[in-house]
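Renewal narrative, Specific Aim 1. Our central claim is that a sequence can be written position by position from structural information alone. The example that follows is taken directly from our test logs and has not been curated for this report. It begins with the structure tokens describing the chain, in the order in which they were read.
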């Protein structure tokens, strides 16, 4: 009887020791790292500005599908290339998308039905311009310099700047500006369009020595 009890206890101790010995190994198993989310290049608008660089805007088809599709269509047609920022208000926003440069123009496509959504107008938010009629957005859009929550649920937000906001900040102010900044080129990131060559800057000539 004694030997059986002794053997049972000895076996339990050995098994317990093996389990404990294996515990640290299990605890040290590395956790699987989360897969990073890739940017949605098909819904990323790229603006090369005359202010010196490239601005990327992630568009939101989940909340404004028709507006995002309109921007993509016009962009791939070359509609925005060379268009000026015709209305730029300090501390508020920069507006573009009118090929006439007057604020009265648009594309030949029909106006869009409003897709107001809960996305707030923060710094870098990109939203569609319109008249007093909610269903008149067409091609013009604006980029917010600062938050403007009074516009929420009144204008269709369709994207937000993800890089290059410093080039938006450098856009010439005015209604209209005296020397308007331009969209040199607009493209969709998935199309992998290279940036255009920036215009050569004039070289300032110094006074000749000894003058």
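The sequence written for that structure reads:
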């Amino acid at each position: 009887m004694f030997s059986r009890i002794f053997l049972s206890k000895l076996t339990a101790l050995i098994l317990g020791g093996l389990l404990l010995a294996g515990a640290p190994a299990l605890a040290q198993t590395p956790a699987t790292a989360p897969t990073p989310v890739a940017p949605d290049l098909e819904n990323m608008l790229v603006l090369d500005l005359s202010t010196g660089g490239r601005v990327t805007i992630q568009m939101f088809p989940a909340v404004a599908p028709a507006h995002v599709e309109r921007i993509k269509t016009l962009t791939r047609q070359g509609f925005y290339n060379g268009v000026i920022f015709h209305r730029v208000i300090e501390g508020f926003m920069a507006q573009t998308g009118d090929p006439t440069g007057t604020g009265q123009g648009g594309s030949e496509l029909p106006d869009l039905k409003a897709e107001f959504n809960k996305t707030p107008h923060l710094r870098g938010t990109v939203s569609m311009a319109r008249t007093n009629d909610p269903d008149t957005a067409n091609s013009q859009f604006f980029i917010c310099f600062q938050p403007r929550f009074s516009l929420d649920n009144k204008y269709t937000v369709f994207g937000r700047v993800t890089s290059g906001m410093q080039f938006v900040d450098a856009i010439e102010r005015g209604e209209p500006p005296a020397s308007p900044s331009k969209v040199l080129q607009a493209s969709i990131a998935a199309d992998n369009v290279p940036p255009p060559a920036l215009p050569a800057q004039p070289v300032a000539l110094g006074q000749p020595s000894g003058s």
